[in-house]
Write a structure and sequence with these properties.
The protein is mainly alpha-helical. The chain has twelve helices and five strands. The strands form two sheets. The protein has a three-stranded antiparallel beta sheet. Strands 3-4 form a two-stranded antiparallel sheet. β1 and β2 form a beta hairpin. α1 (about 20-40) runs parallel beside α4 (about 170-180). The longest helix is centred in the middle third of the chain and has 39 residues, at about 230-265. Bound molecules: benzoyl coenzyme A. Benzoyl coenzyme A binds near residues 113, 213, 301 and 318.
Length: about 475
């Protein structure tokens, strides 16, 4: 393994100093990245010391160091997990062949499309969260937001490195475009739908880090199986950082539930209006936020039946998460039964080639993973003695991509009439009143250890520090 070189302008463990042309190209992109960060990152806090972790190695032990950093000075760099000697491709028609150290010419455009799509999501999320710092519920949360932001910035670097190093001039052009598209921009939006949704309150932020960052986990796991070894290695290391982002989402939502239950017990009621007057987020409102972000994130897996998915699997470009867990890595004869709309207002089951159903395989694994948090929160609710249960809507609900796109169903996935759907959405998704109530709670709390009234404190602080540690020095 090459040790991380921190003496360089761009910290890296890819021996950048030995490739002057590449180094110069990336150093040329670096100021544009910093300009973008200043314009669309959390720049109102640029001068503040933030207690951040920074990658200092890529091995399991002690890969990060913690300390105060001003965000624009964060050492964004290029870190690939160690190369596995003699790695073989683990799936598709190329199963068993040595992993590629260069992009095979015939798969170049497919690889570029996936790397660009992955890269596009990273700066998008920073843009979506641009202003959240102003309404943080605590210094602890503010620090977590910034940690997530700088690491998404680093994940952008991870993809830009691949584009520059392996895709020549068009790779460099794509790297520029990653800074030119913007979340929610009418003319140049981000590529995938969810990354154009506004995140203007912290409940949305926690839902996003719970549901959408988890899409990141599953997509990165697919790409970590890729036959293109530098892509696989960079994604393996990104997964190490990604875990914290989902932790922020899961504990954030768990703390909201905890606080709401405290207020419900105190007041002896689950009446939403009474709870709102007491400054707590009622559970039906939380359910509507979960419905929104889960259904939006389901679209990120693409169509149920997809020739793109079949091709990328066949060609060894994109595998399944933890491909090693499967017995059949080639899947030429296997099929999968998928529920599809029957075109007459109902649903039918259809057997499709497993290769074409790879998006659905990944989506189902993702949904199962999403269930785990709900089970924990429901346990909290049950222990507190209340009947309410949170639930994930069906994979068919409110889809905008794939076979169920535009097909009206209820949250259980039963096809319903369009009018009933329009009517039902008022109960199933956050209303204007819900959103303005949540916004009314968003007041910044920055005294160390203090929490906004709508969220419970975390069980512990960061890196074994106390919850009331001064995680961001705003003074
Ligand atoms: N919105 O055959 P189809 C993360 C497009 S998150 C808009 O159905 P395919 C992160 C698709 O691009 C992980 N368009 O699906 C999280 C294609 O367009 P083209 C991000 C969509 O290609 C939080 C067309 O529909 N990583 O890291 O098999 C914070 C037909 O495609 C959407 C990746 O996504 C949508 N939701 O699969 C920060 C991995 N869905 O090409 C970061 C890389 C599909 O015909 N991307 N389309 O113009 C992929 O693997 C695939 O592109 C997808 C789609 C899974 C997204």
């Amino acid at each position: 393994m090459t040790a991380i070189d921190y003496a360089e302008r761009i910290p890296n463990n890819v021996n950048l100093a030995n490739d002057r042309t590449l180094q110069r190209a990336l150093e040329h992109w670096q100021p544009k990245f910093l300009d973008w960060w200043r314009e669309l990152g959390p720049n109102d806090f640029a001068g503040k010391d933030v207690y951040l972790r920074t990658a200092v190695g890529v091995d399991a032990q002690g890969w990060a160091s913690y300390g105060y950093v001003k965000m624009p000075d964060y050492r964004w760099g290029i870190f690939l997990a160690d190369q596995a000697p003699d790695r073989k491709i683990g799936f598709g028609d190329v199963y068993g062949q040595p992993a590629w150290q260069q992009v095979p010419g015939e798969f170049r455009s497919q690889f570029r499309r996936l790397i660009v799509t992955q890269g596009d999501t990273e700066p998008a999320s920073v843009e979506q969260q641009h202003l959240l710092g102003h309404t943080c519920p605590s210094l602890y949360d503010l620090r977590n937001l910034f940690q997530v932001n700088v690491e998404e910035g680093r994940h952008l670097w991870a993809m830009v490195y691949l584009l520059h190093a392996y895709f020549g001039r068009d790779g460099r052009e794509e790297a520029e475009e990653l800074l030119a598209r913007h979340s929610g921009d009418a003319d140049k939006p981000r590529i995938l739908g969810t990354f154009n949704e506004p995140i203007s309150d912290w409940l949305s932020f926690f839902c996003f880090t719970y549901f959408t960052d988890r899409d990141g986990k599953f997509q990165l796991k697919c790409l970590a199986e890729s036959g293109f070894d530098p892509l696989a290695r960079t994604c393996r290391f990104m997964l190490t950082e990604e875990a914290h982002h989902m932790f922020v989402g899961e504990t954030g939502l768990g703390r909201v539930v905890k606080r709401t239950l405290e207020v419900m017990k105190e007041l002896g009621t689950s009446d939403p209006e009474t709870l709102r007057r007491a400054g707590a987020i009622d559970l039906p409102l939380l359910q509507r936020y979960l419905n929104f972000w889960f259904s939006s994130s389901l679209d990120l897996f693409g169509s149920e039946v997809s020739s793109n998915a079949a091709t990328t699997f066949a060609n060894g470009i994109k595998g399944r998460p933890d491909e090693g867990q499967y017995a059949d890595h080639v899947c030429t004869d296997a099929t999968m039964v998928i529920g599809l709309p029957d075109g007459a207002g109902g649903a039918k089951e259809e057997s499709v080639s497993l290769r074409n159903a790879m998006n659905e395989v990944v989506r189902e694994a993702y949904a199962k993973d999403c269930e785990l948090g709900l089970r924990r929160w429901n346990m909290q609710i049950q222990r507190a003695g209340f009947d309410f249960r949170l639930a994930l809507p069906s994979l068919r609900f409110r889809r905008q991509i794939g076979a169920w796109a535009g097909v009206p169903t209820d949250p259980q996935g039963r096809p319903i009439a369009r009018e009933a759907y329009a009517q039902g959405l008022r109960d199933w998704l956050p209303s204007e009143a819900d959103r303005s109530f949540v916004h009314s709670l968003m007041h910044r709390v920055v005294e160390p250890g203090k929490m906004a009234a709508w969220i419970a404190p975390p069980d512990r602080g960061i890196n074994n520090l106390a919850v009331d540690y001064e995680y961001v020095r705003l003074g």
